[in-house]
Design brief:
D-Maltodextrin-Binding Protein, domain 2; 5-stranded mixed beta sheet; alpha+beta; about 25% strand; single chain; binds 2,5-anhydro-1,6-di-O-phosphono-D-mannitol; binds magnesium ion; 2 domains
Length: about 325
């Protein structure tokens, strides 16, 4: 098999489709390199003194793990000096991170969830990094939080890495979704799947069912109909999977189809769901749509939402198109 490296893929995509200018290519390669470093730290586990809590709360009010902080630092340091970025924003930081003025400023803005699936870090279950790339508004002098508040449809690139039995990087620049596997001996990303397509139909769903008593009626109806199996209105049996790492759940859906849900519920109206629009929902929605799937907040397309706050939360329904459309239709009835 002829091996195509991430660099070769990016160069060829630029040559053939003109979607990856040099600065964006640098950005993607720097993020991919940072993911390699994070993968290495994750893989050390107890041998690396990286497990456990850092006993600090982040802006979301969640206690940070040591690896959350380490991964955040790795991404910040890797991306500061290249001249490709104007600013960064992270799920783990309250405010945006400006590029120190000893370095040149570029035209892109990078957002990330440095280590998604934090509750799985200490128990050796797959976790990952999610990232999203926006263009700085024309004529922007000093970046502000406001400059980041662009609908997901304006992303120029998005991707995630999964640190699991294999370390993989999944990427889109708006021209399909491609997967690279980390060759751990060589330290290089090798293209292992191009133009991934999510099947439109599925018999597999993912939701944290422990919240069932708090769900809104359309979600309860949708899940109950699946639970009813062959004798219910769907006339089919469904399987359930919940890894509690969005990266790993979404990756499974990219590989074999499925629907992933983190709905809003009747509890705190100021927290519609758990997942964050800018660091989780938008990049995953971009990837899923590019793979032929769909992503909504139960009402409309996630990528069309005009963000109001950097850390805003959003309900998420994504994956196989026909199922996402069905649960979205239930919200309209
Ligand atoms: P995190 O970014 O703090 O890790 O939280 C996001 C994670 C997602 O990866 C996952 O889908 C969800 O939280 C799991 O939630 P729950 O704890 O309700 O199972
Ligand atoms: Mg997360």
């Amino acid at each position: 098999m002829k091996r195509i490296s991430l660099t070769q893929h990016l160069v060829e995509e630029q040559r053939n489709h003109n979607t990856i200018p040099a600065e964006l290519r640098l950005l993607i390669e720097v993020v991919a390199r940072a993911c390699k470093t994070i993968s290495h730290a994750v893989g050390k586990g107890a041998l690396g003194d990286v497990l456990g809590s850092a006993n600090i709360e982040n802006v979301q009010g969640e206690v940070q793990k040591k690896l959350d902080i380490i991964s955040n630092e790795i991404l910040l340091e890797a991306n500061e000096w290249g001249g490709h970025l104007a600013a960064m924003a992270s799920e783990e930081m309250e405010t945006i991170h400006l590029i120190p003025n000893r370095y040149p400023m570029g035209e892109y803005m990078l957002l990330f969830d440095p280590l998604d699936g934090s509750s799985n870090i200490d128990v050796n279950v797959s976790i990952g990094t999610i990232f999203s790339v926006l263009k700085a508004p024309d004529g922007m002098a000093a970046p502000t939080e406001q400059d980041f508040l662009q609908p997901g449809a304006q992303q120029v690139a998005a991707g995630y890495a999964v640190y699991g039995p294999q370390t993989v990087l999944v990427l889109t620049t708006g021209n399909g979704v491609h997967c690279f596997t980390l060759d751990r001996e060589m330290g290089s990303w090798v293209l292992t799947q191009s133009n991934i397509q999510i099947p439109a139909d599925t018999r597999e769903y993912a939701i944290n069912a422990s919240n069932a008593r708090h769900w809104h009626p359309p979600v309860t109806r949708y899940v109950n109909e699946m639970l009813a199996g062959t004798s219910g209105p769907r006339e089919a049996d469904f399987n359930m999977r919940w890894i509690a790492s969005m990266v790993a759940d979404v990756h499974r859906i990219l590989c074999r189809g499925g629907i992933f849900m983190y709905p809003a519920d009747v509890r705190d109206p100021s927290k519609p769901g758990k997942l964050r629009l800018m660091y989780e929902a938008n990049p995953m929605a971009f990837i899923v749509e590019q793979a032929g799937g769909a992503a909504t907040d139960g009402h409309g397309r996630i990528l069309d939402i005009q963000p109001e706050k950097l850390h805003q939360r959003v309900p998420v329904f994504l994956g196989s198109k026909n199922e996402v459309e069905r649960v979205t239709a239930y919200h309209k009835e």
